[in-house]
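The protein record filed here:
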Amino acid sequence: MPRRLTFEEFVEATKTIRTKARLFAFFVDVVAAYGYDRVNFSIRRDSALAEEDCGFGLINTYPLVWQVYYTERGFASIDPVYRRTVGMALPFRWRNIEREEDLTQFQINVMREGEAAGLYNGVGIPLRGPRTQLAGVALASSVRHIGPTVSLEFLSALCDHFYTVYYRICGSLENTHYGAKLSERECEVLIRAAIGRTDRETAIVLGITYDTIKSHFRRIFIKLGVPNRAAAVAHALKFGLIDL
């Protein structure tokens, strides 16, 4: 099994990747190291990308039998995982959908059949951009038990940066304008968070209080329209607001 990379190592390793095929293979290996060896990456809508760079299942390492069955039955129109991925902004665990939503029996059956096909421990990661981009990554495991649970925030950061690199390879980043502007101090705070510094360490280095650090992050979240630090780092890297 590949070694588990930190987010910083993942970002550094992707800097030299130049093709979609290499990026896809690398990303699949990275998430597999955390137990998620089933990956589906889809782009439903993205006006900044060429038509051939969008679509359902751009990466799809789900069992082939399930892929064929899913397509033939037209499950995409009722699949609660797919619907939630394109309809929400926050990452989620598949197991929570049934408890949090009023599903039809057909939708429940889709989830049961997916598990029977070998899709366990599922996670949905919505991916969003400034020009109504709509994409997502669905991760699952081929085994029921994968060890310690990996945080949704970390998985979201990996997927968001993967999407960033996909943009770069497709040649669209330079054509994408992101309206948010971060102050110099906000950039400093965010860069230190990206390289693993704690708030207290950052406060000492910058000569400001711990509460001021928290205030900076609240403003960053509002400006970038993101829910947490991992998403803020990934978005800032994606649109060139910071550089590691």
Summary: The chain has eleven helices and five strands. The chain has two domains: 7-175, 184-224.
